[in-house]
Amino acid sequence: MPGSSRGWVGVGSLENAITQHYGSGDLLARIDAGLKFSGVDPARLTFEDLAPVDEFHIGGRKATQHALSRMPLNALDHVLDIGCGLGGAARYLASELCCRVTGIDLTPEFVHVARILTARLGLSASLDFKTANALAMPFEDKTFDAATSFHVAMNIADRDRLYAEVARILRPGAMLCIYDVMKTGPGDIVYPAPWAETAEISHVISPLETQEYLRQAGFEIIETENRRDFALQFFRRRIAGTENDGPPPFGIHLLLGETWREKFETTLQNTEAGCIAPVQIIARRTSS
Q: Per the structure, how many domains does the chain have?
């Protein structure tokens, strides 16, 4: 979901399906129109002006703050945001924690918009965005001091390759923060979901499976947190707030297309049923 371009599977046809799912071709125009309708000049943005649309994952800014509060980061760290989407979490890292940040995403439109929004906020000196595949990242071994990945892996089938690649680009002792929708109970996921219209490009696995993949790649699990209650509050509030008057002029629905309400409702349905939940995992790259 909200990750993002948020997803890579390593097979050309499916990569195309994923980029088509997230890319619309007119995203910047829709964001600017929403800003103007809300009384905000797109050329005179503040960090808070972008908050309603900037972080494409369950809980938005609050989820970002919660996740990064568990990361021991400092101004000397170079952080990789894997599946950076519009760059909201990366900009938070740069502006609030003073880190140098590189963001990658499979969807070229997301990277294009991320660069423009970052320039408007005057943060380009500490941020760099690249169109890249998380299964074959264009970086040398042991480049980064930490990495984040928010709502990305739900579209990735090859978790062995994904986490091995993340381990490759991290220095020993580097921290990794994952915040993904995971399979937390029985039953089939109902679609469409924010990260997939159908099951074809959806690859949701359990927290235990994720932990095992991470260990095999060379990570030590520090903590795991199921954020189901947080997600329920988020979706119930968002859906209730749009029942009578429709969506606000500026919000995450701009990234979800015309089926945004159905995607919210099915995600709430899946979460209430215990089938899925957003789960946060903090892990450390081992020295071996």
A: 1
